[in-house]
Amino acid sequence: MKIRNVKFIICFACLLALSSCVAYAQTSERLLLNDTQSVILSFSSEIKYVDFGIGAIKGQRLSSPKMLSLQSVKPEFSESTISVVTSDGGYHQFSVSYARKLDRLVWQQSGHSFETDSIGFSTEKTTHFICDERISDIVVSSESVIAEYAEKIENIVKAKAVDMDFTEASMHLITQSGYIYTFIVKPEVSPQRLSVVLSSEAEITQSSQAIFKSNSVNDDQMRKFAEKLTKEKPSMNDIGVIDLKMAFAMSGIYSFNDLLAFKIDVVNMGKIDYVIDFIKGYIKDKPNSKAMAVQEEELTPVYTYFSKKTDSQVLSAGESETIVLFYTRFTIPHKRILHFEMFERNGGRHLSFPVSSKEILKAKAIY
Questions:
Q1: Strands of 5-46, DSSP E
Q2: Contact 343, 278 (CB under 8 A)
Q3: What residues pair up with 169 in beta bridges, in sequence order?
Q4: Is 212 in contact with 170 (CB distance < 8 Å)?
């Protein structure tokens, strides 16, 4: 064999080895985004790196390491790009622009298309979504719509409108196996669909079962812990908000086993009844963070305790309520912050306050 042929073979082998170690380029794709609906990107391999060209786009990594949700943070933005590198060495670039009407709400690398359904939500009635497998992520694009797991049940989601003044929003329910159910949500005074089956079957069969979360501490133990905590003196008094004749404040953070308990006090200082609709906890990037992607992660409590033990959660003038929210134990980096929000049913008195990572680390151990 001639020397030049040997050199050619060696060079060719080196190029093959090198190509297996570096990302390979993908064809740039066009992607439309807006501020009222979310778009889900689903890749064939785990996402290792994401870069957003501008801060007007927020992204959130989902439970599946292969998925990312995207949305604009304002009505208009300059055309930009999003770059993603996956664990198989793939380099994916998207040319992103703003559009009032999106051509798709899910992009999947495999090319598989998911159907989009339309549904109406109201403030008066709750709609339940029942799936035949665990739902790993709930992605809602509008603050006027709230969706969360039915108490400790991982395959049933309850959703409703917080107010009726919103444009068409989106909601994605993503299952443990990676299937994506997509809905266009519209305000509807009297929704016709209050139970939605997410299954390949025509209806939920008798063999269908609710899938419950497993915790080291059961409901009865958490209830007893909460009763004990409501009788303790506040361990903090500088976290909360007083506004609109309402007080909404954190009075203690506690840790035991694999759980964190947040004790929250609510006081109605006005003359109009306040009906608690939802209390929501979520982790978000700090406003001054230099991160290019604004990520928000909603937390789902494993147990919620109300000291008044009423279903209506009506706070009359001068009344107070102590609420204890239990979450699977977590910590957050200093560049992120925990927020709690309380929503009034059929009203506009929505209150919120932040909790820093340092305060969480000061959680008092209880036994």
A1: 24-25, 29-33, 39-42
A2: yes
A3: 185
A4: no
* 3-state secondary structure at position 222: helix
User: What are the per-10-residue average pLDDT scores of the chain (367 residues)?
Assistant: 43 42 61 94 92 84 91 88 91 93 92 87 92 90 90 86 92 92 94 84 46 67 89 91 96 90 96 91 76 69 83 83 92 90 90 94 85
pTM for this prediction: 0.60
* b/e sequence 190-208, b meaning 16+ C-beta within 10 Å: ebeeeebebeeeeeeeeee
Rounded Cα distance between 201 and 183, Å, is 19
The position carrying tokens 């694999």 is 258
Cα 82 to Cα 51: distance, rounded to the nearest angstrom: 6
Distance (Å, whole) CA 130 – CA 112: 23
Owner of token pair 């506009």: 348
Selection from 268, 249, 258 nearest residue 359 by Cα: 249
Sign of CA dihedral 350, 356, 362, 365: positive
**Strand boundaries in 142-245, DSSP class E:** 145-149, 156-161, 169-175, 180-187, 195-198, 239-243
